[in-house]
From TrEMBL:
<keyword id="KW-0597">Phosphoprotein</keyword>
<dbReference type="InterPro" id="IPR005467">
    <property type="entry name" value="His_kinase_dom"/>
</dbReference>
<dbReference type="InterPro" id="IPR003594">
    <property type="entry name" value="HATPase_dom"/>
</dbReference>
<keyword id="KW-0418">Kinase</keyword>
<keyword id="KW-0472">Membrane</keyword>
<feature type="transmembrane region" description="Helical">
    <location>
        <begin position="163"/>
        <end position="186"/>
    </location>
</feature>
<protein>
    <recommendedName>
        <fullName>histidine kinase</fullName>
        <ecNumber>2.7.13.3</ecNumber>
    </recommendedName>
</protein>
<dbReference type="GO" id="GO:0016301">
    <property type="term" value="F:kinase activity"/>
</dbReference>
<feature type="coiled-coil region">
    <location>
        <begin position="223"/>
        <end position="250"/>
    </location>
</feature>
<dbReference type="Pfam" id="PF00512">
    <property type="entry name" value="HisKA"/>
</dbReference>
<keyword id="KW-0547">Nucleotide-binding</keyword>
<feature type="domain" description="Histidine kinase">
    <location>
        <begin position="250"/>
        <end position="457"/>
    </location>
</feature>
<keyword id="KW-0902">Two-component regulatory system</keyword>
<dbReference type="InterPro" id="IPR003661">
    <property type="entry name" value="HisK_dim/P_dom"/>
</dbReference>
<keyword id="KW-0808">Transferase</keyword>
<dbReference type="InterPro" id="IPR004358">
    <property type="entry name" value="Sig_transdc_His_kin-like_C"/>
</dbReference>
<dbReference type="Pfam" id="PF02518">
    <property type="entry name" value="HATPase_c"/>
</dbReference>
Length: 457
């Protein structure tokens, strides 16, 4: 994978260099051709050559001789030039601003020499023609210099081709070296990123530190964060799976007991010799065991719906004090709990919550029953309504510190649990309160009891 990325990167770099070289060559040739085909009149107007060729417009023939117009004289002054007009024999017949050192006669060879080279006074000469006369424009200390180059076009083309070819080859070699060095630095982390993603796909979530991550430092940091998150989820999944298996094992055991009772007492009911009192007693046992199994299945169904957020709430504005008081009264009227001590107090008679009364009653009952069932018969349970929520505390056995983190986990049954149960009660209560946008806090100490504080935010 690493070499594939490196080769692809090198190919892209070399392709870019090659294309840029070709484009630059085409642009250079196009510019040269456009300059070659350009009309002299379109050349930059402040050049001496263009000035001289266009100066004939400032000349006229008067009395058989050429004369410079006033506009021409002004143009010479602005351009910083001087002028000499020659007849067909090379004699100077008139001039404008010519220096005293200027010649009064020019041979054809001298004209050629003047045109090609700058004289000792650093004058650059330009030659024009008008109506059979020749004129010389001299520019003292001109910034423009004329260079004469003699060349064979075919040889020039050969040299240019070789030069451009060498440039392309050298550019490609340099691009290859630089691209290779850079690609090794670039593709190594990319290759490692792909490997890390493959490891995550294979459920290998161990974070790893990358040496010299370069510009991908944050990418590797994010991958490590993802690894830690996935590892935490995996640990949670395994933990939940283990607890669920244990719960299934416990529930299977718990179901076998009532099923055995139901089956046994159902067989006894077939006996015609049992008395009516015994028949009622057996029927009562079957009913109680059936109700227990129904509660078990209801708990399982409810926790799954809460877990999947598939529970719609029938919210009603409820005064908390009266709602909690009624729950405790109903509980104390149950013959099973008539002998238990449950204290109720409230200092927030106006506290009102938007709640699903049926589900919230189920949640509060789970907390209270948990305190009553999983402690000794002389346990004291206190329920208090405050401005900040509901507090349920007991003075029972308490919960071991190492078990407190798991107390709200589904399927969990504490080691101090002596009665049978589904292990879903507190998890269901917590999920119901969270579904209302609330929160449950717990404090417990072995031998001193447990406290649950319920708040609706």
């Amino acid at each position: 994978m690493k070499w594939k990325l490196t080769i692809r990167y090198l190919i892209s770099i070399l392709s870019i260099v090659f294309i840029v070289s070709i484009v630059n060559t085409v642009i250079l040739i196009a510019l040269l051709l456009s300059q070659h085909n350009e009309d002299p009149e379109d050349i930059i107007h402040d050049t001496g050559e263009n000035f001289t060729r266009a100066f004939y417009k400032n000349l006229s023939i008067e009395d058989g001789e050429p004369v410079v117009s006033e506009e021409g004289k002004d143009a010479l002054t602005r351009f910083g030039a001087w002028l000499q007009i020659l007849d067909e024999n090379g004699n100077v017949i008139s001039d404008e601003y010519a220096p005293e050192s200027a010649a009064t006669h020019y041979t054809p060879v001298e004209l050629v020499h003047k045109y090609k080279y700058m004289d000792n006074d650093f004058n650059t000469y330009f030659i024009g023609e008008y109506e059979g006369y020749s004129y010389i424009v001299g520019v003292p200390e001109s910034k423009q210099q004329r260079t004469i180059i003699m060349a064979d076009p075919q040889q020039v083309f050969t040299y240019v081709s070789q030069f451009l070819g060498a440039i392309v080859i050298v550019d490609l070699i340099i691009a290859f070296i630089v691209g290779f060095l850079f690609s090794t630095v670039l593709t190594k982390p990319v290759s490692r990123i792909i490997e890390r993603i493959s490891e995550l796909k294979e459920r290998k979530f161990q974070p790893k530190k990358m040496k010299r991550p370069g510009v991908f430092k944050r990418v590797f940091a994010n991958l490590n964060d993802v690894s830690e998150t996935l590892q935490a989820h995996e640990n949670e999944r395994q933990k939940l799976e283990q607890m669920r298996n244990e719960w299934i094992s416990n529930v299977s055991h718990d179901i076998k007991t009532p099923l055995a009772s139901i089956r046994g007492y159902a067989e006894l009911l077939r006996n015609d010799e049992i008395s009516p009192e015994e028949r009622l007693e057996y029927a009562g046992v079957i009913e109680r065991q059936s109700l227990y199994m129904k509660e078990l299945l209801d708990d399982f169904n409810l926790t799954m719906r809460l877990r999947n957020q598939d529970m719609s709430l029938n919210l009603q504005k409820t005064r908390v004090e009266g709602f909690v008081r009624k729950i405790i009264i109903d509980l104390l009227n149950d013959p099973q709990f008539q002998t238990h001590e449950i204290d109720f107090s409230s200092n927030a008679p106006e506290l009102t919550w938007e709640i699903d009364q049926h589900l919230m009653k189920r949640a509060l009952l789970n907390f209270i029953l948990n305190a009553l069932i999983h402690n000794d018969d002389d346990v004291k349970v206190t329920v208090e309504v405050t401005e900040n929520g509901i507090i349920i505390r007991d003075n029972g056995r308490g919960i071991k510190k190492e078990e407190q983190a798991q107390i709200f986990d589904r399927y969990y049954r504490g080691t101090n649990t002596t009665s049978r149960g589904t292990g879903l009660g507190l998890a269901i209560s917590r999920d119901i309160i969270q579904a209302h946008g609330g929160k449950v806090d717990m404090k417990s100490e072995v031998g001193k009891g447990t406290m649950f504080k319920i708040r609706i935010l």
